[in-house]
């Protein structure tokens, strides 16, 4: 996918920090995997490469999803909401999206008995981040 | 669903404005409908009533989804992400989520030829907001 980047960025309302919220959804199962942020540069890179790149607020720099974990997100489609302040990324997630080793970051549910973990790690964080790998 | 509100709010990381991002997803189809914001009061009301209430940043007050349009969201489940700064609301959307009359706010897609509208309004905004109704 190589849409005209300028065309897209024109309708995005970046916030005071220059960021827009980006929701990643597995394109075929509909599972919501995570929410993160993009600046204009991350959005442009994502659109031009077809590989999802966020902006890490904690590290203050581009966050090429999977660059340390190998768990990349291939962009299938990118949607923009009515007021332009949220993006929905339809992706093909390689492995797991969450740094805890779970498929989705939304693994805790508010249930009558309190917070419940509804998914277990599929990979240990050590395996994700502790070793050199070639992904 | 009546989970202990304090238990949930304790793990939510509200931002500097006292808000947390909330993604609404239709519980059975997986369609992502919208993204909005909640403050602690909106979250507590949503959990205690089972009807989704956001916080409107533009109006600076609670936004009981559907209070003017009739297009309410019944809460089916509420998920919290790994770092607590995003919520995923599994909802049963009555009618349409978007103020444009479309089912989802994410009705524009970035395609090679530019931005494309991938969904048409199901209800006219006039019908949603222009008349008194009893929903």
From TrEMBL, chains A, B:
One GO cellular component term: cytoplasm
Highest taxon of the lineage: Bacteria
Binding positions (Zn(2+)): 82, 98, 105
Gene3D superfamilies: Phosphoribosyl-AMP cyclohydrolase
Annotated pathway: Amino-acid biosynthesis; L-histidine biosynthesis; L-histidine from 5-phospho-alpha-D-ribose 1-diphosphate: step 3/9; Amino-acid biosynthesis; L-histidine biosynthesis; L-histidine from 5-phospho-alpha-D-ribose 1-diphosphate: step 2/9
Cofactor binding, note field: Binds 1 Mg(2+) ion per subunit. Binds 1 zinc ion per subunit.
Signal peptide (from-to): none
Compartments (UniProt record): Cytoplasm
Cofactor(s) for this UniProt protein: Mg(2+); Zn(2+)
Domain Phosphoribosyl-AMP cyclohydrolase intervals: 34-107
NCBIfam families in UniProt: PRK00051.1
Assembly: Homodimer.
Family per similarity comment: In the N-terminal section; belongs to the PRA-CH family. Belongs to the PRA-CH family.
Protein name: Phosphoribosyl-AMP cyclohydrolase
């Amino acid at each position: 996918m190589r849409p005209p980047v300028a065309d897209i960025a024109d309708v995005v309302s970046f916030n005071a920090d220059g960021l827009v919220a980006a929701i990643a959804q597995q394109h075929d199962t509909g599972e919501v995997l995570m929410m993160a942020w993009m600046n204009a540069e991350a959005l442009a890179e994502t659109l031009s490469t077809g590989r999802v790149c966020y902006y890490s607020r904690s590290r203050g720099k581009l966050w090429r999803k999977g660059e340390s974990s190998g768990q990349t997100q291939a962009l299938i489609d990118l949607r923009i909401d009515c007021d332009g302040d949220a993006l929905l990324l339809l992706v093909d997630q390689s492995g797991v999206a969450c740094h805890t080793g779970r498929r989705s970051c939304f693994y805790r549910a508010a249930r009558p008995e309190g917070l419940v973990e509804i998914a277990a790690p599929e990979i240990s964080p050590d395996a994700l981040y502790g070793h050199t790998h070639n992904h």
